[in-house]
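Weekend entry, working from home. Most of the wet-lab plans are on hold until the incubator is repaired, so I used the time to fold the two sequences that have been sitting in the queue since the last round of cloning. Logging both here for the record. First:
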Amino acid sequence: MATAQRFHIDQNGHSVTVQVAGVHGAVELLVDGKVVAYRRELGRETAVLDAELPDDPPRPFRILLAPVARGGGPPLCLLESDRTRYLLPLTPQSDRRDHALGAADAIRILRRRIRRMRRVAMRRR
């Protein structure tokens, strides 16, 4: 099982994301990329996070995280707004290499390219 889960939905023009670190880890609720609610650990009972969408007037909503029986996978994540519940889909975590290289990776790639350039230059002589 993955060490972290990420749930995401677009709701009324706003991005709502829930990130769970590990099976019983910390839970972050993000609206439009900003953390608006946080819970230290998930626990065995249904976790409830309350927040608001930044509209005029602000629209309250609630996130419900219900652990799956027997610990067999990610929790169920529901968004409750205006007496309606929406199931938030589990989205894949992006790999660090998709966004940016670390300094060690960049140096390794540069050294490899310099070696290849030297080999090509030596062949041309």
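Second, folded right after the first finished:
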Amino acid sequence: MTPTANPFHPDLQRAARFLPNVTANRPLLAVVRLLTRFLPASRVPQDVDVAVEDVRVPGPAGAPLVRVRTYRPRKAQGPIPALLWIHGGGYIIGQPEQDDALCLDFARALGILVVSVDYRLAPENPFPAPLEDCYAALRWLFDQAGALGVLPERIAIGGASAGGGLTAALAQFAHDRKEVRPAFQLLVYPMLDDRTTTRTDIDGTRLRAWNQGSNVFGWRSYLGREPGSAEVPAHAVPARREDLSGLPPAWMGVGTCDLFHDEDIAYARRLEAAGVPCDVTVVSGAFHGFDVITRDAGVAREFRGVYTAALRRALFPAPGDAEHAKAG
């Protein structure tokens, strides 16, 4: 019998072999949250090029203040663009600290202000709490643009995994509320569609870091109901929205060995069909979160370079790009 070809990118094969196939559940969730409290990364980083600060901003009506972590280039002069960044974690774990390295890179490489949101987590705080927290942070960024030295017409939103799902939902939410309009949405292997949990044709041997069992637990925790049901609340599941017209231009990136590959490509195609520009990058043989898990691998550095360049084009458009930037 001919052995099955290794599905993973050469730079990722070693990591793929040793990554455990663990399914998220309540006991594991408690352990992971406990461990993250004692990580050295929980401290505010000291960087010679970027000033980092934790700030409490007004939350949704009747809800607690929202903590955001800001990353400002120390040499920034005049109003600068900004990025509201939303961390991943399946809607159930995570904090801004986990993306310190990435947010520092964004601020340093692009000369922008980065604001990372510490939104409330499910299952204790199901939808709409996490999304409302992200929207409150976005409103604060727009409302305080002058004081923060930010160009309000050049504020992007972005996130990875569940943070990418919240980014897509936030773009829809902001569009419908008509109070603020982000200039761009950066969707890094986003968690967009609860209906993926009902699929029975997925090859689990090709998945790493986030499997179907974890996906069921994450969506069930976030929605407060069984995922894949006939109806969900508006804005809870980005891929369920029928009309995608009028949303900000987007960039989408995902690997072929990612559980979210199919739902992400489908959403990108629907954005384009609705007249929303959406650049797509697909990395052959890449599993979920590969750019974080194997941060120094060549393919991971290249992927981060691609989406950093997409963010640069969106926030620092050339004169000829003006028409492209006016999606919707």
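Plan for Monday: verify the second prediction. The chain has one domain: 10-315.
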